[in-house]
Every structure is written in C-alpha cells, then in structure tokens.
Design goal:
heterodimer, A: 554 residues, alpha+beta, 4-stranded antiparallel β-sheet, 20 helices, 51% helix, 10% strand, B: 570 residues, 4-stranded mixed β-sheet, 19 helices, 10 strands, 54% helix, globular, oxidoreductase (chain A), FAD (chain A), Acyl-CoA dehydrogenase (chain A), flavoprotein (chain A), AcylCo_DH/oxidase_C (chain A)
C-alpha cells in the first residue's frame, strides 16, 4: 500500500484535530453537527490548501491522476469530520458522468467550475422510486433545440448550492432499459422560474450537509446539455456509480481511524472505579479486533480502487465488494467500540468533543448512499457467474497487490469500464494463493488453517457460481456476501504475500491468518494471544498521542 | 385465575388508548410531538403530563403504600406502551420510579407518603444507578457526608442522572462511615435548610436528546435520620435490590421502541413499491421483518418470564435480570438497525415517514442499551452472575417490612397446571420436550421442534462445561467470558420461550402456539443468533415465515401491540 505525500501534507497542514476550535477540529465538527450548520470554515480551509484541484483530472487543469490518492485525501478529511469529507469530495463524485462521457466542452466547463470552488450535484433518485431508477418520473421532452424538464429529484446532496446538476431523466418517447438519458444542467443558465429548490432535509448524521430536492417546471435546456448518448443514461449511471462506490470506502476508513483512536485514548485513561481499563483483556481484544478490521478494510479499499484504474473490466465486482465490505466493517466495528465505551460515547461533549457518537451516525450514511447494502449485494450475486469462466489469468491483476503500484493517469482507460464484470482474475488466483500461503506458513499452523478456510470458502463460492440464483432473493444476498468476503480475502492474502514484512504496507504475514479469519468467519473471536499481539502493535502506533499518530500515518 | 401479565397488558392498553393515536399530529402524545420536542431539545412534558393525567402516578406507587401497582408486570407493560410513543418521556418517568423504589422497599411510612405525594403531584425524582465513572450513584469525594450519629452534611456531585435538572426529590447515596459505608438519603430541595442544592448545566446527548441529564450538586446540605432510607451503611444492598428492577425497566423501554420501529417499517414496506411490487413481497425484506418480529417475541418472553421469576422464584431474579439486560436491549438495537436497512434513505431522514420517528428511536434505543452499563466493564454482568452464583445479592423482593404488594407468591399450581416449584427447578426446554413426547408432537412442526429442543439441551450442557473450565484468574474479564455471557443469555431466552410455549400451547385461540410454530420460530432464531446458519432448503421454513408474517400483519391491521398477548392500541 502506498503512502501519498499529498495526503501527509494535507494532514500536517490541518493541524491538531484536538484543538478546541478552528476548522477541521473535532470541536468544530461537533459544533457544526449540533447546529446542523454548513461547514463554511472547514471547506474554506480545504479550498485554501488546494483541495478542489485534486478533484479535477490533470488533463483538465487539475492535479488528479491517481484515484488511490483521492481515496487517501478523502480519508484524511473524514478523520476530522466525515461531513466535510462528503461535501468536499462531492464535485468529483457528482461529476463522474462528465469525466466518463462528457464532451470536451462539458468537461472543460465542469473542471473550471470545480477549480473555482463551485458545487456539482448528481441527481438520480426520486421520492417514490428510490433505487428503482427505471421507474423514475422526471421527464425530458424533446423540443426543437433541446429538452423541456418536468418533475422532481429528491435527496440530492448540495443541490441547493450547486451550479451544475448531472440529471437522470426519462425521455417519454423512449422505452425500457433505454428510456433514460443523462443531462448536464447548468442552473446558472436556467430561468429562475424553471426550477424550485426544495427544503433542506434533516438527517441522522452528516447533519451539516445540505441535502434537499429540486423540482423542474417546463424548464428548457439546450441540446448541448446531453451527457453521453441519448437513451444510455442508465448505463452511464451504473458506470458512474461503480466509480463512486469505489471511493466511498475512504470516508469509512477515516471515520474508523478516528473512532479507534478515540476509543483507544479514552479506554487507556484510568477512571476512579475501574482502574486502568486497558488492563482488561476484553477491552484489549475489542481494540485489537477493531485494529485488525481497519487494516483489512484499508487493504480491500486500496486493492479495489487500484483495480478501477488498472483493470476497469473488473471494477463492477471490485466496487461492489469495497462498497459493501468497508462501510459495513467500519459501521459494525464502531458500534462494537461504542459498546465497550458504554454510556460515555453517547455524550455530545467532553472526551474529544464527543466526536465518537457523531462518527457512528455519519458512517451509517456510507453503507446507504449510492448503493445500499442490499443493492450492492444483489449486484455481486448477479455477477457471480463470472467465476465460471475458464482460463482466466490471475496475473492480470498482479500489479494492484504490489506496494509500488502506479496507475495510468485518471481517466485514461476508463472507457473499458462496463456495467458488469465477465471475468474475475482476483478470485481466479485463489487456489494458487492458498498453495503459496501453505508453502510460506512454515510452522505457522494458524496460517495453514486460514489457507484451508479460504480454500473451502472459495469452493463453496464456485458452487454458487454454477447455480442460478435470483440476486434479489435472500439466497442471492447470501451469495453476494460470500462473494464479497472471498474476493476481499484473496485481495488481503495476495497483498500480504507481495508485501513481505513491511509493517507500513499491506501487512506482514503475521496478521494474514487473523485477517482471513476476520473476513471469512466474522463472528468468531480471535485467539487471545493473537489479540494481545495486535494490541501491542496498535499501542506502538497510537501511544502516546493517538491524534498525532494518525497524522504520521498519512 | 388470570395471569398477572394479562391484567397488566389490559391496563397498559387503557393507557395507550387514553393517549390517542400517535399518528394524529394534533395529539400531545403523537410521534410528531415527540420528534419535535426532541429536535428542539425540550423535555417532553406534554406526553408526561398526558400519562399522569390518565393516572400513571398511581401505578408508580405499590398497593401496599396506597397506590395501584400490584405487579412487576404492570411496570413492564406500562413503560413499554409509553416508550412506544417516546422513549425519552418513558425514561424520565422510569427514573422517577427507580428513585422511589428504595423508599417502597425500605422507607419509613413518612417517606412513603412524601414520595407518593410527589408522584401524585406529577413531579419527577432523580436516582442514578450505574453508567458512569462511579458505577453507582455515589457522591464524589471520600467524605461526602460528614457527621456522626444522626446528622450529616452532604457535599459533592452525583454522576450524570436523569431528571437531575428538574427533580423535586432525589434518592442519593453517600459515604457516611469511616470504612466507606454507603447510606441512602431521600432529599428534597426544601429539606436541607442552609445547604445548597443545585444542578450543573444539562449534558447534551444525541439520543434521548430532550432528556434532563445532569449532575446534581450538594454543598453543606444537611440530612438527619428522617432523610435516611433504611439503615445507615446499607445503601449497597439498596442498589443491589434496585438493579434487577432497573434492568427490567430497560427491557420495557427497548420493547416499546422496537415495537414502533417495526410498525413504522411494516407500514412503509406495504406501501413502497420497487421493481413493480410492494417491497414487503421481496424475500430479504420479509426475512428481516420476520426476524425482527421474532426478536420482539423472544424479548417479550424473557421479560415476562423475568417478572414471573420475581414472584415465583425470587432468589433467581437477579441472575435472570442480568440475562434480560444482556439480551433485550441488544435485540432491540440490532432490530432497529436491521429495520433501517428496509426503510433505506428514510431511516436516515429525521422528519420523513411517520414524522421521522424511526430515526429518533434509532438514537434513543442506542442510549437505552447503555442506560445501565454497569455490566459492560470490566466484566459483563451476566458472566459475573453466571460464574459467581454464590456472591449474588439477595432478592430485592425478599420480605422487608412492610412487604410490597407484588412480592406475594401465587399459590402453587395456580398457573397452567404447573407448580411453582416445578417451574423454578426445571428446564423449560426439557419440560417442553417431555410434553411433546408424552402428548405427541403436533403437525407440521413437531419433529423440527423436538430437534431444536434437543439441540438446546446439548448446548446448555456444553455451556456449563465451558463455564466450569474457566480457570484463569482474569478469565471473567476476557472475550471468552463475554461470549459465554451472551451464550447464557441466549440459552436463558430459549428456556423462557419454552416455558411460554408450555403455558400457552393449549389456549384455543392460539393455533400458532398449538402447532408448535411459535416455538420453532423463536428457537430457530435463537439458534441463528448463536451461530447456526439460516435453513435454506427447508421448504417448511418458508411456510413458517409466511405464517409468522401473517400473524405480524394481523397485529398491524388490528392495531395490536406486537405481542403474544392481545393488546389493542389506539
């Protein structure tokens, strides 16, 4: 796994998150959350640092070449305030249809707007249809020179402050899978009476964000707004979501970084009635398990984002794996840490300004937006048959597991991005990986058993691949989850094998076995000796100052 | 003789009906009002007042002290239906009840009259039990109560307590002896002439946002014999007597919150269409709804069994309460999270679908889970209870003059042909299995039921072996002990479900029980919570799910509480 100087630079420039006030401190994050306030100060600080340039491809005047770097930047911001990270990253995410399919003029206009600090929205969902995009009712009627829009979108991030909206519309004269078209609407050029910004929607977490809706009434947009090909809006939407879903894990990782650091810091402080709590083996085991999940999650997120640029044909699977697993691990692990912290974590003040509780609420969004858990698990189940393809070369993805991976500059090669994967070279390497793990295990019986477990689960998955399963059934959901876990386990194993013993890369072999067990047997408790070993590693990294140690990790 | 739980639920139904339709925005007891006060951080006085106007205060006062409270079941049922409206309001009144409990158990007639008067005046009381750095509600400082003999001066601040900012009285524990002995005092602001009674600013929480959570502070506050509850130095006993009741109340709050979330999501799942059909018809949605419904039935069964245990086998009450506290809030919070997946984006919106009540309950239930986190650190309470049986506190309802009304035992054999002694001494799982063999297994679930009962008998035996094998000095503070505690809680739940089925299987209106479906549903779910996989190929499991869904929908359509007992709601 790479460390990015830019991400380290950003982290260092933002200063101590424990300062009582100031942009991108925990205190500031909590104050904004309590007041449901748009984080002007923090966004302005990021703009001053040059964050918007990292959202725009280099070829269009920005500094974005590596999506892995963008993931790392999002993580750095999310560590301080996931709300700010969601807002700050949204111009890139909302602009994905343009990066993928925009005309040179559209790409130039959007790039210039983002570099100037203007906002972009991706408007897909409607009040009554949700994930069922084909049932959307916002229409774009063809008229001479353009389209006339009628209808409303709901639950759209930043729409009330956006200049551009990537808008998914139904063309009434089209039917079926090709009835939807994507438009790039410039709200500055739309007559004010052509649209209405709907009231802000109050949310459970990310309370400082401005999430609302927009209603169009007989609004004319010119032909030049057409984004991609007419009737191919669904295809473009799915490909855009594949990209976005691959980057969402950066937000979850940032939240888990801080949640773990916060819990570690709180639990190591002696309290009057309990003595030094980290002396308790249960607390150490829980912290070690969270640390392991964090390492697993960052490995999976890194592999999947690299796959997006290295082998886009596999990205529909990899993005679903990352979007399901990383937010799921972060959310469930934060809940577990909350149980260990007890009542204290629910306070909106005191320790670390009460940010832990906010992190729990904020992370719940990441498993929900741009593809909820059921949706991405269905997507995986629908693609599991790709495992039946013969003669798939595992070598095709070797590069993504190597520490020195360098991608082609974004968005080069992404025209190969499809809506579903036909082959899976990651999982194709499963048998080979298991053999290599056994060979390298030496006397490490735990690693041998973990390799056997992976082999067994891989076999089960291949059996699933040969059976017709309805992706929307309960069995389909289970197949999707198994696919995600096996795919992730192979990513972890291959990364560990490539990384050797460098503790700051994907990980030395000593945590491979617990990592595979955590992925494939998530409810099983790790042996206490393993937990103690991981806890010591965690302590070395986080003590004596958890907040600063985060900064060093970059 | 009608079971106390039946009478209690009937009383709770009256309260619910008096509070009106929670979806009526004009009602003071509506979801809309609860969400609004929560958003504004205002104490839900409107709902508390409405409940008091109905007469709730009488049910906070034991019959032995002139009130209307006759059973623990009444407490459970009343707080459950109140919590289904607003957990914040229910928690505030539950805190008042807990604060009064030491007085009902050990107070003087004068103290009882005083507390009864406050409750009848719709005033709030404060009492903390666990959940902070101090573990129990103990004034900070080593010499918190200075003085000897019959007069003390109280100094210090309590941990965070509910109603801390607006309490008309507080039950306070303070150190009064050189050896650190604790004494319980019943204090009112006016009782301490010359002393200072105050509260620190309200603490902010995101769940139970409108609650009056703060530290009560005392300085030079005088107290004499008249303020001592029970005997000086005996406060720890008071805490230990109160704790099991507090755990039971937490279960009631969790049940109420989960009921509303399930109801709201059923409503959504029926009306929301996706891919051309109601999402209720999607198999994963149906599975989630039935799982949560089953969790609710299990949680209810263990809670009712806990109340029964307090009457029939009081010595087991503390242990059983620890299991209930371990299980019920967790089932509720996990259930709400699962329902949030069905509700999708609307679960994340604070004012959508039923005024955003699920989003509020999601935050509130998370707080309920840790209201009594005395057993989260350093070792889970159920583990302690399971491994230190000899060290258990005496039952809170052991005779202590004058005896609270609900401690009276029922005559042996009064219920369902089972004697109290049988009940207390036997495994419900074993009894259910024996009955099935003796009476014949009902179709179509009898065979599956026998298999499941057999599996739980085996698991219980294995759990005992694990417990006996735990020899390391800090074993009870480790993850294995935590897992064992969870296992015990699930096995206890299986026992409770089995007893419930044994008692209800012959009720004529309950085909779902008579066929064994109810118990299969609960035991299958518990087995899965203990690590078993969901049966995929068993055609019967689909039938069972459909039968459970039909029962769930019937309760929804008929506006009944999601319960094994028919409780008509507004």
């Amino acid at each position: 796994m790479s460390t990015f100087p830019t991400a380290c630079e950003l982290e260092a420039s933002l200063g101590d998150p424990l300062s009582p006030t100031g942009p991108l401190t925990y205190g500031n994050a909590m104050a904004g959350d309590n007041a449901e306030r748009w984080p002007h100060g923090s966004l302005s600080r990021l703009r001053g640092w040059g964050y918007p340039a990292h959202l725009v491809p280099e070829a269009l005047g920005g500094r974005l070449t590596s999506l892995e770097e963008l993931l790392a930047l999002g993580r750095v911001v999310a560590r301080r305030d996931p709300t700010v990270a969601v807002i700050a990253s949204s111009p890139w995410a909302s602009g994905t249809p343009v990066w993928l399919a925009g005309t040179p003029a559209q790409q130039r206009d959007l790039a210039e707007a983002v570099l100037r600090g203007q906002w972009v929205s991706l408007a897909l969902t409607e009040l009554d249809t949700g994930a069922d995009l084909l049932s959307n009712e916002l229409t774009a009627r063809r008229v001479p020179g353009g389209f006339v829009l009628d209808g409303a979108k709901w639950l759209i991030n930043n729409v009330r402050v956006a200049r551009f909206v990537c808008l998914l519309v139904r063309e009434p004269q089209l039917a079926g899978l090709r009835s939807l078209t994507m438009l790039l609407v410039d709200l500055e050029r739309l007559p004010p009476d052509g649209y209405e910004l709907l009231p802000r929607i109050h949310t459970h977490g990310i309370r400082g964000a401005d999430i609302a809706g927009i209603r169009f009434r007989d609004a004319f947009v010119p032909d030049s707004a057409l984004l991609g090909r007419p009737g191919r809006g669904l295809d473009l939407t799915i490909r855009s979501l594949v990209m976005i879903r691959t980057l969402v894990p950066g937000l979850s990782l940032g939240a888990l970084d801080t949640g773990l650091a916060c819990a570690f810091d709180f639990l190591r402080q002696p309290r009057p009635s309990h003595g030094p709590p980290t002396a308790g083996p249960f607390v150490r085991e829980e912290l070690a398990a969270a640390y392991l999940d964090l390492r697993v999650a960052e490995t999976v997120a890194t592999c999947c984002v690299r796959i997006l640029q290295h082998l886009p044909a596999l990205a529909p699977v990899a993005s679903a794996v990352a979007k399901y697993l990383v937010p799921h691990l972060a959310e469930s692990r934060l809940r577990s840490l909350g149980s260990v912290l007890g009542a204290r974590y629910l306070l909106r003040q005191d320790h670390w300004s009460g940010v832990f509780e906010k992190l729990i609420r904020d992370t719940r969004l990441f498993s929900l937006f741009d593809g909820s858990e059921p949706v991405v698990l269905s997507a995986l189940a629908a693609q599991v048959s790709c495992l039946s393809e013969p003669d798939v070369d595992p070598r095709a993805v070797d590069a993504v597991f190597r520490p020195g991976f360098v991608p082609p500059p974004f968005p080069a090669g992404l025209d190969a991005l499809g809506t579903a994967s036909d082959i899976d070279p990651v999982t194709a390497g499963l048998d080979e990986v298991c053999t290599e793990l056994r060979r390298r295990a030496g006397g490490d019986h735990a690693l041998v058993r973990a390799a056997e477990l992976l082999h067994h689960e891989g076999g089960e998955l291949r059996r699933d691949a040969c059976q017709a399963v309805d992706p929307r059934s309960e069995a389909g959901q289970q197949v999707g989850e198994r696919y995600a876990r096996v795919f992730a386990a192979v990513c972890v194993a291959r990364s560990c094998l490539e990384a050797g013993t460098d503790a700051f890369t994907a990980g030395p072999l000593h945590w491979t076995a617990p990592a595979l067990n955590a992925l494939l047997r998530p409810d099983a408790r790790m042996p206490r000796a393993t937990a103690e070993e991981l806890f010591e590693e965690l302590t070395r990294q986080y003590a004596p100052d958890p907040a600063l140690s985060m900064a060093r990790r970059g | 003789m009608k079971e106390p739980i039946g009478e209690a639920m009937a009383t709770a139904a009256l309260l619910d009906q008096a509070l009106g339709d929670p979806l009526d925005e004009q009602s003071a007891a509506s979801f809309s009002a609860g969400v609004t006060t929560d958003r504004e951080g205002r104490f839900p006085q409107h709902l508390c007042s409405a409940a008091f106007e109905w007469g709730l205060a009488e049910y906070l006062i034991p019959a032995g002290s002139g009130g209307g409270l006759r059973s623990l079941e009444q407490c459970l049922a009343l707080f459950r239906v109140l919590a289904r409206r607003d957990v914040t309001a229910a928690t505030a009144i539950a805190a008042s009840f807990l604060a009064s409990l030491p007085v009902w158990l050990e107070g003087t007639p004068g103290q009882r009259r005083a507390v009864a008067g406050l409750l009848r005046g719709h005033r709030f009381l404060a009492f903390a039990i666990g959940g902070d750095d101090h573990g129990a509600d103990i004034l900070t400082g080593t010499d918190a109560a200075r003085g000897t003999g019959h007069a003390w001066s109280l100094h210090g601040s309590t941990p965070l307590i509910d109603n801390g900012g607006h309490a008309a009285a507080a039950t306070v524990l303070a150190r009064t002896g050189n050896g650190g002995d604790l004494t319980t005092f019943l204090l009112t602001p006016s009782s301490g002439s010359g002393g200072h009674w105050g509260s620190l600013p309200k603490h902010e929480t995101h769940g139970l946002r409108a609650t009056a959570l703060s530290h009560l502070t005392l300085s030079g506050f005088p107290a004499g014999d008249a303020e001592v509850v029970g005997r000086p130095g005996q406060a720890l006993d008071t805490v230990l007597h109160t704790l099991p009741v507090a755990r039971m109340l937490v279960a009631g709050l969790a049940l109420g919150g989960l009921d509303t979330c399930l109801r709201a999501v059923v409503s959504f799942a029926r009306s929301r269409r996706l891919y051309g059909r109601a999402i209720m018809e999607l198999e994963p949605v149906a599975c989630r709804l039935v799982d949560v419904y089953t969790d609710l039935l299990i949680a209810e069964a263990v809670s009712h069994e806990l109340c029964r245990t307090a009457r029939m086998s009081p010595h087991r009450f503390p242990l059983m309460s620890a299991c209930v506290k371990e299980l019920v809030p967790r089932l509720a919070t996990d259930g709400v999270e699962s329902l949030a997946i069905v509700l999708g984006a609307r679960a994340y919106c604070s004012t959508e679908h039923w005024h955003g009540i699920v989003e509020k309950m999601r935050r509130d239930c998370a707080v309920v889970t840790v209201l009594l986190d005395e057993d989260r650190l350093p070792a889970p309470g159920a583990t302690r209870a399971a491994t230190e049986l000899g060290a258990l506190p005496p039952d809170p309802f052991a005779p202590s003059p004058p005896e609270p009304a609900w401690t009276g035992r029922l005559p042996a054999g009064a219920e369902a042909g089972l004697s109290a002694d049988d009940d207390a001494g036997q495994s419900g799982v074993a009894v259910a299995a024996r009955l099935l063999r003796d009476e014949g297994a009902p179709e179509p679930y009898g065979r599956r039921l026998l298999e499941l009962l057999g599996r739980f008998e085996e698991m219980a035996a294995q759990a005992d072996e694990v417990a006996l094998a735990a020899g390391e000095p800090d074993w009870h503070r480790g993850g294995d002990a935590h897992d064992l505690a969870e296992r015990h809680a699930h096995l206890h739940a299986a026992e409770a479900c089995a007893w419930t089925w044994v008692r209800r299987r012959r009720e004529p209106a309950e085909e779902f029980h008579a066929s064994g479906a109810w118990l299969v549903l609960c035991l299958q779910r518990l087995a899965r919570l203990m690590g078993a996989h969901r049966p995929q190929d068993d055609a019967g499991s689909g039938d069972l799910r459909r039968a459970a869904m039909a029962r769930l929908e019937r309760a929804y359509d008929e506006r009944h509480l999601f319960s094994d007992i028919e409780v008509p709601l507004t």
